[in-house]
Amino acid sequence: MGGVTDASAAELLTGAVGDLVADLRRLRAPALADEPDAVHQLRTTVRRLRNLLAGYRRYLRRKPADDLRARLASYGALLGEGRDLEVRADDCRRVLAELDRGDLLDDLVAPLLAGHAAEHARLVAWNATDEAAALDAVLDSWAARLPLRRKRAARSARSAGRHVVRREAGRVLDRADAAGETSHDVRKAARRLRHVAEVAGDDRAAALGKEIQSCLGEHRDAVLLAGYLWSAGGPAVLVAHVEVLAGRALADLPDALRRLRALHEA
Hints:
By secondary structure, the chain is an all-alpha fold. The protein is built from 12 helices and no strands. This is CHAD domain containing protein.
């Protein structure tokens, strides 16, 4: 695992969590101003922190870790409402350009942008609530001192990382076997694998997690766009085009899962 020294798991986690909390604070103002890609970056950082807490849960005290994960889940869901509409609007705009149907922008893209604006206003309002202040207080406490399980967290970061990455890779494969390769659970598991592997310094596992997540993410976005276009009365040719894109997004998925299985069994 390149990038991980002989530090302890406690030192690794303290540094990683501290960096992510700092990123959350840095990204808040741009996200509230709705600067380009800012909400996406903030949402991704929330997910990274949640996944780090989940992947390394055996090294953290359960109650405070579960509490922070729950708070981050609520925050991430709020960020996701507006971000998903923004992505759908961008995808819709791109598809309309591909098929030379700019005449449909007002009918199909404008409602998505209006929805995004409403969700962003909700995010700004939430930021002034007691719930937002409570999240800040919890993040401050974690940045100051992690609630570690001291004995377990004293083991080497390299050893802990190998164990965590192996478990998360197995989790991706188990979900692919149980729920099907294209399931939402596989995408979420692959994203967690990517995030913990990046912290652990396992570049191969991180790359495979990212590849699987990307395939399934592109597929999901296309499926949701097709559903939106159908419900909004878009032309059948437009819906069919997006459904083809959804199928293409999965072309490399079986091979990526095969390579992850080989890495996991090595």
